[in-house]
Design goal:
The protein is α/β, with parallel strands linked by helices. The protein is built from 13 helices and 19 strands. It folds into 3 domains: about 80 residues, no CATH class; about 150 residues, von Willebrand factor, type A domain (Rossmann fold, 3-Layer(aba) Sandwich), CATH 3.40.50.410; about 140 residues, no CATH class.
């Protein structure tokens, strides 16, 4: 057992020493002596205060000291030390679509995981898993093509405080290609909270998939506002790889998208939808914010939306474009109503939106960051963080504190019963 606030334990021991000192100061009946007159005899029983040369009631003294020390120990934040080696590891494994070989990255991470360590997998979110977890290739392919460091570092640091008790140090390891989309506005501030270095293990990044094939727009509008933007984007000719349909997909569309690595985009037309000033956030290598008069359209059944991956969001975080795997291809739904007139589809931000909608199913991939630009993440060295700096932030083991308080109450009850019997 360790104490995160040893000063309070020291105060409890000091209080026990005070109890011992007070116990040695006792009252006793003075020896009889003849008096010349009875008028000087006190009305009450005569007693004198003196220091005992030999302590008495040792069991009573022991119970009092024990109760005081136990109360001090209970308030000293007791924690139970975790069993394991002196140096433990927290491994952060990138399982996003940015990793070229997920199986090789998994083996690399497990090789650096020590007994008693913690394995955290992350893409745009982080999750603590066991060492026997399995990577499903389909889920990795459909995952967000971005391994975000911020949630991974937060969860890894939290796990490190938990396993630091009983260890000398904790090593933090990041297994990831670390692309240009891995860092966000909070990453460096989170990194500053780690008291040691970080070992970076760079794995191969997935190459950006070029769109090989044509893009078709199927619409009943003679002057569809999407037509000019699609015409600018359609550079590749040949086999149709992306199909944008403005009417609900039919059986032929479903059969087409299931048959290969294809993208079917359902972008409905609702002329009566209410158009108002709004904003869209488009992530990815061509991240952009589109501010324009737009309409929010329904995305379909709630169950389908909950299963889907969100590609584009409105300014309040609501999904605007979702993606679902359909066979070997993917179906995307765009719940964005466009104004019938204006230059909206000619803006660069709209081109970024359309590029996101027509990207391959696995998404577009940002290039890795140069290794010499990651000094802020690696730190001055790969030194592990001292456990004492992490254990101070660990939560109190409330069960241990309660047991200590219960033992102190039992000692006080026994002391009271013994004092009553002696009286």
């Amino acid at each position: 057992m360790s104490f995160l606030a040893p000063l309070l334990l020291g105060l409890g021991i000091a209080a026990g020493a005070v109890v011992v000192g007070l116990h040695l100061i006792t009252t006793r009946r003075p020896p009889p002596a003849p008096l010349p007159t009875a008028r000087f005899v006190p009305v009450s029983e005569a007693r004198a205060v003196s220091r005992a040369s030999r302590p008495t009631d040792l069991l009573l003294l022991a119970l009092r000291v024990l109760a005081v020390v136990l109360i001090g120990a209970a308030f000293a934040r007791p924690v139970l030390d975790a069993a394991g080696p002196a140096v433990r590891s927290v491994v952060l494994l990138d399982v996003s679509g940015a990793v070229a070989d997920p199986a090789a990255a998994r083996d690399t991470a497990l090789a650096r995981l020590t007994p008693g360590g913690v394995l955290v997998v992350f893409d745009t979110a982080a999750l603590e898993v066991g060492p026997d977890f399995a990577i499903v290739s389909d889920s990795v392919e459909g995952a967000e093509a971005r391994g975000a460091l911020s949630p991974a570092l937060l969860l890894g640091m939290r796990a490190a405080t938990r396993i630091a008790r009983g260890a000398d140090s904790v090593r933090l390891v990041v297994v990831s290609p670390i692309t240009q989309l891995a860092e966000d506005a909070a990453t460096r501030a989170i990194r500053a909270g780690w008291p040691g270095g970080i070992e970076l293990v760079r794995v191969a990044a997935r190459a950006d998939t070029a769109r090989a094939g044509g893009i078709s727009l199927r619409t009943d509008l003679a002057d569809d506002p999407l037509a000019p933007a699609v015409a600018r984007l359609t550079d590749a000719r040949g086999t149709e790889k992306v199909r944008i349909t403005r009417s609900p997909p039919g059986r032929a569309d479903s059969a087409w998208v299931r048959g290969g690595d294809r993208v079917l985009v359902h972008w409905p037309i609702e002329p009566d939808a209410e158009v108002a000033a709004d904003a869209l956030f488009v992530p990815g290598p061509d991240a952009a914010t589109l501010v324009a008069p737009l309409a929010r359209l329904p995305l379909g059944e709630r169950a389908s939306v909950m299963r889907a991956q969100v590609l584009v969001r409105w300014r309040d975080g609501a999904p605007a474009v979702t993606q679902e795997r359909v066979g070997e291809g993917c179906l995307r739904r765009a719940a964005i109503g466009l104004p019938a007139a204006g230059d909206l589809t000619l803006r660069p931000a709209f081109d970024a939106l359309l590029s996101q909608l027509t990207a391959p199913c696995a998404g577009r991939h940002a290039p890795p960051v140069a290794d010499d630009s990651l000094g802020w993440l690696r730190g001055p060295s790969d030194a592990a963080a001292p456990a004492v700096a992490l254990a101070s932030a660990a939560p109190v083991d409330s069960a241990a504190a309660l047991w200590l308080l219960a033992a102190a109450l039992l000692a006080l009850a026994a002391e009271w019963a013994m004092r009553r019997r002696n009286r």
